[in-house]
């Protein structure tokens, strides 16, 4: 089976090649390019493709993949908001993902953002390097006893709740489906309005879909405690960035930690240090002392990379066996 691997960085290539030792029947070809209508011709003559979070798997792209007789799409991520599953189903192209490569890695990154924003280690690091040991401006707060709101309590949200309960926080949760494990840890489910009004910190762990798009907007912000901390390690479009900036100016948001950004596709995972970034909203976000942005690195730990590589190859290998139900295949729900 010949597989075109898109958005492939050297670290992806290393872990995929190491994992492929056990899957000799799969031949991998690596492309740094993101999959898009401009790069789609690279997929011609391949049996399957493998993609990441910012690859374009819209209807037009999938139609072209079908015309090339590509037989499977193996995502190297958990989220699949970038895939037109309806179109893939119509072409009978199975789409696989890696649902649980390491929920802890993303949960721990959300906590890293909380700790950085609270104790201002991003600012302290630069001060100390310049011989400035003054503490004015670095005052933090104790997490113990604070109320943390977790929106989305699946794999990552549950891991996040476990850590925050360990800190001694009161954890309020909202999800369209309750997770009994989270309740057994000591968290409490509530409605969104209560979560907004009582939380000191709100962390997003739900998928991006029509019901969660711009969940954080001027309306939801107006229901929150003044000075609330918002953390988004899920998908950028959960937050309306312009309205978050307005919230930062008004002090409604006291701290903002983002690992994802709605328009991240043209920037993240690339070295843009010699380029002009033509996104004034993003540039403005970077000017706030109480905003920390990381470039979609929540998943980026050693264990997670290995699990992603192993599971991606296992997902593809299923295509070589006759019939049957596939594991980790995403199904389109009307
Ligand atoms: P999951 O499917 O295990 O959990 C998602 C939870 O969100 C589920 O419990 C679901 O019921 C809930 N949900 C769905 N719609 C909701 C809504 N409208 N309101 C509230 N909750 C809702 O997924 P997961 O593995 O925990 O991942 C969560 C998200 O994290 C992914 O969708 C992805 O976008 C993101 N992610 C980010 C990174 C990163 O590197 N930053 C890595 C992996 C995943």
UniProtKB/TrEMBL annotation:
Q: Which residues form the D-isomer specific 2-hydroxyacid dehydrogenase catalytic domain?
A: 9-322
Glycoprotein listed as a keyword: no
| GO MF entries | D-lactate dehydrogenase (NAD+) activity; NAD binding
Can you tell me which residues the record assigns to a coiled coil? none
- D-isomer specific 2-hydroxyacid dehydrogenase NAD-binding domain location, by residue? 111-298
- What Pfam family is a match, any one? 2-Hacid_dh
Superkingdom in the source lineage: Bacteria
UniProtKB keywords: NAD, Oxidoreductase
- Report whether Cell division shows up as a keyword of the record: no
Family statement drawn from the similarity comment of this UniProt entry:
Belongs to the D-isomer specific 2-hydroxyacid dehydrogenase family.
> What's this protein's name?
2-hydroxyacid dehydrogenase
């Amino acid at each position: 089976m010949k597989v075109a691997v898109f958005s492939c960085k050297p670290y992806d290539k290393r872990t995929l090649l190491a994992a492929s030792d056990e899957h000799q029947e799969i031949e991998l070809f690596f492309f740094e390019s993101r999959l898009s209508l401009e790069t789609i011709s690279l997929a011609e003559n391949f049996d399957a493709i493998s993609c990441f979070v910012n690859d374009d798997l819209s209807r037009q792209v999938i139609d072209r993949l079908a015309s090339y007789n590509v037989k499977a799409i193996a995502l190297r991520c958990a989220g699949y908001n970038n895939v037109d599953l309806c179109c893939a189903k119509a072409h009978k192209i199975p789409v696989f993902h890696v649902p649980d490569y390491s929920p802890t890695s993303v949960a721990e990154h959300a906590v890293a953002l909380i700790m950085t924003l609270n104790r201002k280690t991003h600012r302290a690091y630069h001060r100390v390097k310049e011989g400035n040991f003054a503490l004015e401006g670095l005052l933090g707060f104790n997490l113990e006893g604070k109320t943390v709101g977790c929106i989305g309590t699946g794999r990552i949200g549950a891991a996040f709740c476990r850590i925050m309960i360990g800190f001694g926080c009161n954890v309020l949760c909202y999800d369209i489906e309750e997770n009994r494990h989270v309740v057994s840890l000591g968290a409490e489910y509530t409605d969104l309005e209560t979560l907004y009004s009582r939380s000191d910190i709100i962390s997003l762990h739900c998928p991006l879909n029509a019901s969660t798009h711009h969940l954080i907007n001027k309306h939801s912000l107006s229901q929150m405690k003044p000075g609330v901390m918002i953390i988004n390690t899920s998908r950028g479009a959960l937050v309306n960035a312009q309205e978050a900036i307005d919230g930062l100016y008004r002090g409604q948001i006291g701290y903002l930690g983002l690992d994802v950004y709605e328009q991240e596709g043209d920037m993240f995972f690339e070295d843009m240090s010699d380029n002009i970034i033509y996104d004034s909203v993003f540039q403005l976000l970077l000017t706030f002392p109480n905003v920390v942005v990381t470039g979609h690195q929540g998943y980026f730990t050693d264990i997670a990379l290995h699990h992603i590589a192993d599971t991606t190859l296992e997902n593809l290998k299923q295509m070589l066996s006759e019939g049957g139900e596939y594991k980790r295949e995403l199904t389109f729900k009307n």
